[in-house]
Amino acid sequence: MKIIVAKDYEDMSRKAFGVMSQVVRDNPQAVLGLATGTTPLGLYRLMIEDHRLNGTSYGGVKTVNLDEYVGLTADHNQSYAYFMRKNLFDGLDIDPASTNIENGAAGDLPRECARYDALLDEMRQDIQLLGLGSNGHIAFNEPGTPFGSGTHEVRLAQSTINDNSRLFDRVEDVPVSALTMGPRNIMNAKKILVLASGENKARAVYGAVKGEVTESLPASILQRHPDCTFIIDEAAAKLL
Ligand code: GLP
């Protein structure tokens, strides 16, 4: 596990861009595992800027996203599918058909999870980007998720609903469940890049990096990955 402490959010985003763009340069057909949340937004802006200014092409790249809310269609403005189009894909030359995310509006959710799991087995991520929940969750794997889980439906922890309610008009509008890659799918990535910014992530970062490896703090499993880098700002590194 490699820990890089950045000065602030901008510096974290620049350093993350360095890692991500290297993966795409090394392999223009790379499979990128992507994440939602406010943490990767700076990185996504830099990817778009680099594409515009330097012509870096994503024409051969494929993507798989971590998770999606249950009950929201891909055109709902709070869905993660919409988030990805608006904050990244629309600014790149990526083929929309090469981008993948769980369908949270599928009629048969267990079947949708099995479909996504099979897809992930075929499309091993060259890099998987992750943010951290303040309770140490990765994707939507809440505390207590068995490390061996693949893609599954999860009932969101109340703390996650509260954290994510800032992006909704009312807390009651936040979906109560989601489909998520499991820890097994995340650990299958060749390389993992974790970003965290701000003091409210400091405890989760500490647990992930220095705590016991335990299912009560899902991000602690990352200690077992052979190529995992944390890029965190000083506030998130406060307890290390
Ligand atoms: C959600 C997502 C996670 C993300 C987390 C942190 O719960 N499912 O993948 O890492 O939020 O979000 P933020 O980056 O906004 O703090």
Properties at a glance:
240 residues; binds 2-amino-2-deoxy-6-O-phosphono-alpha-D-glucopyranose; 7 helices; Rossmann fold; 31% helix; seven-stranded parallel sheet; globular; three-stranded antiparallel sheet; alpha/beta
Helical fraction equals: 25-40%
Looking at the structure, the CATH topology is: Rossmann fold
Total of helices = 7
Strand order in the sheet with the most strands: 1-10-9-6-2-3-5
Radius of gyration: 17 Å
CATH-scheme architecture: 3-Layer(aba) Sandwich
Secondary-structure element series: EHEHEEHEHEEHEHEHE
What report would you give on this structure?
The model has no long low-confidence stretch (mean pLDDT 97). The chain has 7 helices and 10 strands. Helix 2 (41-54) links the parallel strand 2 and strand 3 (62-65). The protein is of the alpha/beta class. It is globular. It has one domain: Rossmann fold, CATH 3.40.50. The protein binds 2-amino-2-deoxy-6-O-phosphono-alpha-D-glucopyranose. Residues 35-39, 66-67, 131-133, 139-140, 160, 164 line the site of 2-amino-2-deoxy-6-O-phosphono-alpha-D-glucopyranose.
